[in-house]
Amino acid sequence: MSPAKLRFERFGVSYGGNVALRELTLSIASNTIHAIIGPARSGKTSLLRSINRLASDVDQALLSGSLQLDGEDLLALDRTALRRRVGMVFATPQPLPGSIYDNLAFGPRRSGLKSRRDLDARVESGLKSADLWEEVKDRLRQPASALSGGQQQRLCIARSLALSPEVILLDEPCSGLDPISTFKIEQTLRALKSQLTCVLVTNNTKQAARVSDRTAFMLSGELIEDAPTSALFTTPQDRRTADYVEGRFG
Amino acid sequence: MTRLFSPRRSQQIARVVLWALMGLAIAVLVAVLAFVLERGLPHLSWSFLSEAPRSSGLRGGVFPILVGTLEVTLLGVAMAAPLGIGTAVYLCEYTREGALTRVIRFGSDCLAGVPSIIFGLFGFVLFVTTLGMGWSILAGSLTLALMILPTVIRTSEEALRAVPAGYREVALSLGATHWQAIAFVVLPAALPGIFTGLILSLGRAVGETAALIFTAGSTLPQTTPRSIFDSTRTLSVHFYQLAREGISNERAYAAAAVLVLTIAVINVGSHLFLQRLVRSHQ
Amino acid sequence: MRGSDRYVERTLQLVAFSSLAALVAITSFIFKEGAPFVFRVGLDNFFSGDWHPTAHRYGIGYMIVGSAVVTGGALLLGVPLGIACAVVLGEMCNASLRGLLKPLVEILAAIPSVVFGFIGIALLLPWIREHLGGPGASALAGALVLGVMILPTIIAISLDALRAVPRSYRDASLAIGATEWQTIWRVVLPAARSGIVAAVILGVGRAVGETMAVVMVTGNAVQLPHSALAPLRTLTANLALEMAYSTGEHRSALFATGVVLFVVIVVLNALAGLARRGAGASHRKKAPRVAALTATHRETEGATPR
Question: What ipTM was reported for this prediction?
Answer without folding.
Answer: 0.91
